[in-house]
Amino acid sequence: MKESEESLNFIEHIIEEDLANGFPQENLRFRFPPEPNGYLHIGHAASICMNFGLGEKYNAPVNLRFDDTNPSKEEQEYVDAIKRDIAWLGFRWANECYASDYFQQLHDWAVQLIKDDKAYVDQQTSEQIAAQKGTPTTPGTDSPFRNRPIAESLDLFARMKNGEFPAGSYVLRAKIDMASPNMHMRDPIMYRIINAHHHRTGNDWCIYPMYDWAHGESDYVEQVSHSLCTLEFKAHRELYDWYVDQIIDPKKLRPKQREFARRNLSYTVMSKRKLLELVQKNIVSGWDDPRMPTISGLRRRGYTPTSIRKFSDLAGIAKRDNVTDVSLLEFCIREDLNKTATRVMAVLNPVKLVITNYPEGQTEILQLENNPEQENSGTHDVPFSRELYIEREDFKEDGGKNFFRLSLGNEVRLKSAYIIKGESVVKDDSGNILEIHCTYDPETRSGSGTEASERKVKGTLHWVSIAHAITAEVREYDRLFLDEAPDSHENKGFLEFINPNSLNVIKEAYCEPFLANATMSDKFQFQRLGYFTLDPDSKDGKLVFNKTVGLKDTWAKQNTQTPAPNQPKPQVQPQPQAQKKALNEIQQIGKKLTNLSGEKLETAMNSIKEFAEEVTYEELEPLFATAAKKTGTRIATMLALGVLLNKGQAKNQAITEFIESGKVDENEILRAEAEKLG
Q: Residues with Cβ < 8 Å from 214, sequence gap 6 or more?
């Protein structure tokens, strides 16, 4: 073997065993076989990375084969998108193939099966065929057309091909075993009539092969050695083998089908049908919406090929279905961008700060390090002046002992600049802060080498010079669904779990002028805010940035260490209850609150407050829209909000509206907690 057994996944074990048993390595060939009926998503990335990764490991060719056997759902747009995504991930295919390339050969083999009395034309309805197939525990019954004369089936099949019959009137079925314990072996359909234009063959055909018939035969034509499929095709393997056995030349390589678990990701859906529904109902802006789990959506959001390949590597190849926490994906992109993204400053929720003892009209050029994680990454210029923007939530008049940002009488450092001290504020008639006035210590400039510059303060703030700032639109994305498994509920559709606050558009953010020259390939860390990338909507001098991921590592509870060379890659299983994120724990406790009283109620409420210490405002705000009848969840949200406000979260319109709605609620606990928050 090429490597120690411990470092191999089970697919590699299969290949190594075949090689050890005499299979020539030069005969290894793999394929990635997408159907062009939608865009590829992060689940497909697992198969892409596995198949092309095997090709790289064994120096074997990998075909890209489009299984385009259903023209009613397939489009050239999807073909182009799939090719673009695979190339972007950094893989190159040996041959670009299509099942439609083999339509004539598949037809000719089907004719031969009819002649060998192994296939027949059936004219039952789809409902009749389904009914006479039986159940997994009872055998099926023969079609009344199962013993139709060979000549008659040949004639009908030819007329089907010639377009003489309407769709659904006839099918070609393999004649196998209606009593087989494997339902797929009970005379499966091989061809059906579809009167639709094909994106490659046009109107040349009106009969199209079923996937099971085209799959193995296409593998055989291409001499694929290992046909790797997801687990739902395990029950199809017997049929795959039967079909191949009918046409194989003993002198040629016989393909082998083996199965692995598909990649499922929490807080999203992986069905292309459901993703298409999101697009068609305009819940998202398109297949490449940055909230989508599609590769194109992830690319637009700012994910990198390196991060997706790393994610696929860490998640591993499993034999059983499992759910990978989306936090692992976020960890991978955060880890990659931390090493590569340029550090810049931008202010998304601005308030004006005036340094009263800084000379009016003066501009100073400071240096901001491009990336402290990269040696020799260099610096770039950032202008500093008397009037700046800082984040509104970075200031409180009286911050208390646990507030480490700017407050009156306290000092903080401005990133790469000076230490400042809050002195006073200017407010409007409604009490809203318009300006913060402060003073600076001119001896404390970062990097100046003075003793004062080494003085430590508890907080460091990012900022932008007002006179030099450029404006940009910033799009902040949250998870598209509020539920970990939105399509797993028996009595609710997945659309019921849409997060109404999955997109927050900031029309006028302020950025340092360095960003005026940003390109689509650049990745940035907005200091203290997260990682951002330029969106294709940017044009004519109007910058649009997408937030890729925040700076906070939400994957801390998982083992994210890269496996040692001789250790197996981790299989990420669904998280046990104790490891679920704090917000999920709050929701779960909240659902039970209205059924509790006395000490149990008090204990539950205290638990919510403890978990709230780990929750961010961005995570909590979507729960403000919880239905009024879900009183327990609203109480839990109010309790958690109280913790955030005590920690320095500034009130905004959404917070105020949620508190006010609580004050007039019928539930006395909810009213009481809302009153505490003012």
A: 67, 69, 99, 102, 106
Cβ neighbors of 284 (< 8 A, separation 6 or more) are 278, 291, 292, 480
Is 35 catalytic? The answer is yes
Cα distances (angstroms) measured from residue 181 to each of 229, 236, 237: 22, 12, 14
pTM: 0.79
Residue-level length of the chain:
678
Q: Which amino acid is at 434?
A: L
Does 118 participate in catalysis according to the annotation? Answer: no
Per the DSSP assignment, residues forming a β-bridge with 532 are 524, 547
Are residues 114 and 157 in contact, defined by beta-carbon separation less than 8 angstroms?
yes
> Which DSSP string do the residues of 228-247 spell out, in sequence order?
EEEGGGGGGHHHHHHHHHHH
Would residue 272 show up in a list of annotated catalytic residues for this protein? Answer: yes
Which pLDDT belongs to residue 416? 96
Rounded to whole angstroms, how far apart are CA atoms 655 and 524? 30
Look at residue 581 in the predicted model and tell me its pLDDT.
64
Q: Which of 16, 35, 369, 373 is catalytic?
A: 35
Residue 510 labelled as part of a binding site: no
Q: Would you say 36 is a known binding-site residue?
A: yes
pLDDT tens column, 425-441: 999 999 999 999 999 99
Phi, psi at 25, each rounded to 5°: -60, -30
Q: Which of 259, 250, 226 is nearest to 28 (CA)?
A: 226
pLDDT confidence of residue 95? 98
Contact between 183 and 133 under an 8 Å Cβ cutoff? The reply is: yes
Token couple for 259: 């199965």
> Is residue 294 a known part of a binding site?
no
Catalytic residue among 258, 262, 352, 671: 262
pLDDT at 599: 60
Cα separation of 605 and 593, whole Å?
A: 8
Measured CA to CA in angstroms, residue 319 lies from 118, 237, 316, 402 at distances of 34, 15, 10, 49
* 335 in a labelled binding site: no
Q: H-helix or E-strand containing 189?
A: strand 189-193
Residues of the chain with pLDDT under 70: 1-6, 553-581, 597-600, 602-603
pLDDT at 491: 83
Q: How many CA atoms lie within 13 A of 325 on its CB side?
A: 20
DSSP code per residue over 65-128: EE----TTT--HHHHHHHHHHHHHTT---S-EEEGGGGHHHHHHHHHHHHHTTSEEEE---HHH
Which one is catalytic: 133, 272, 445, 547?
Answer: 272
67 is in an annotated binding site: yes
Q: Compute and round to an integer the Cα radius of gyration of the chain.
A: 31
Q: Is 147 annotated as a binding residue?
A: no
Residue 353 · residue 388 · CB < 8 Å: yes
